[in-house]
Amino acid sequence: MQTIQANGYPVLFGEKEYETLNTFIKKNKYSNLFILVDSHTNELCLLRFLSFLATDKTIEIIEIESGESEKNISTCVEIWNILTELGADRKTLLINIGGGVITDIGGFVASTFKRGIDFINIPTSLLAMVDASIGGKNGVDLGNLKNQIGVINVPKMVLIDTEYLSTLPQNQMRSGLAEMLKHGLIFDAAYWAEFKDLSQVDFADFDTLIHRSIAIKNEIVSQDPTENGIRKALNFGHTLGHAIESYFLENETKTDLLHGEAIAAGMIMESYISWQKGLLTEVAYFEIKQSLKSIFGIIDFEENDLQPIMDLLIHDKKNEYGKIQFALLDGVGKIKINQEADNELITKSFIDYKN
Which of 151, 167, 183 is the C-terminal boundary of a domain? Predict the structure, then answer.
């Protein structure tokens, strides 16, 4: 499958590209290699990766626990200390093997250790392949607030090996699917049409769909690497989705949501806002709502959940001058950024979501 050239790094596809990785490591004469994994990818993915890795450099494995709760500055401190104790220097390469938590935190650790060392992403979840590992966003959560601390800094390469997807449970695959659906809704109506009825999707050719999703994200990011304009389109569904995800993460009475589950709910609600603001037709809105609910089901909100979620919206990174900014659909396949919605309309979107 054809390489996608991103801003300053290639996105490589397939088993044969491990040869490209080995050549790159040899050419750049790294002093040593560190591999960051979590408890799941250490068990399920690391051996496959090491079977393709050909190097005479010293290799050290750093393992953290799996899960969003590990994506914090304390975990970064632990990793920085390990790198220091084991002799990492400016010519060290960090290879991140895992889902979005690993690529986010690994990229942040590498970007800040000794003012920056090289890193490579090997995403092993669908969400990381089509979203988290692409575009150079790296960072950690601040308490329950998603991705509040971070940098934009690109890896030396991203290697997509879809064999790792066989290690994922169904709910993790579905979580990644949410971002693929988003890419169609904001950029490519034909791509959305391929997914809106999953019974018609040819999963035998799923690699092609993954490639297209990455190409869409890369095309948007390449126009606006630092998110001053069109890159904000990628936040469709995330203004409300991140607030929902954060609320469920901090509330001990709630079951934590996967990222894609929260974003799917956010996309339905922000599609409702798009419709109410005259940007999206009623027919298109109900098609989106029906399709996403058929895949992701419904998150169970209580009436007393709504205000705490609304309170979290003020922390969204797109906000300017204290005003909540949305990326809304301007018809299927198009987007309008920097859109405002008042609390009454946002509340109605939650009510409509439950109906």
Answer: 167
For the chain, the domain total comes to 2
Please choose, from the candidates 71, 44, 37, 65, the residue with its C-alpha nearest in 3D space to the C-alpha of residue 169.
44
pLDDT of residue 254: 87
What pLDDT sits at residue 202?
Answer: 75
Structure tokens at 85: 């104790």
Q: Give, in order, the Cα–Cα distances in Å from 90 to each of 30, 112, 201, 239, 274.
A: 9, 11, 46, 37, 48
Q: What is the pLDDT of residue 214?
A: 98
Tell whether 50 and 151 lie within a shared domain: yes
CB 160 within 8 A of CB 123: yes
- Say whether both 108 and 179 belong to one domain: no
Please give the Cα distance from 218 to 11 (Å, whole number).
10
Token duo for residue 13: 């596809």
- Which amino acid does the sequence have at 186? I
Please name the residues in contact with 247: beta carbons below 8 A apart, sequence gap of 6 or more.
Answer: 144, 254, 305, 308, 309, 312
Residues 6 or more apart from 167 whose CB is under 8 A from it? 40, 41, 44, 45, 124
For position 70, what pLDDT does the model report? 96
For the chain, residues with pLDDT lower than 70 are 316-322
pLDDT of residue 324: 84
Residue 310 belongs to domain spanning: 170-354
Considering the domain architecture, whether residues 149 and 190 belong to the same structural domain is answered as no
| pLDDT score, position 314 | 78
pTM here is: 0.94
The domain spanning residue 187 has which CATH number?
1.20.1090.10
d(CA 175, CA 54): 33
Amino acid at 154: V
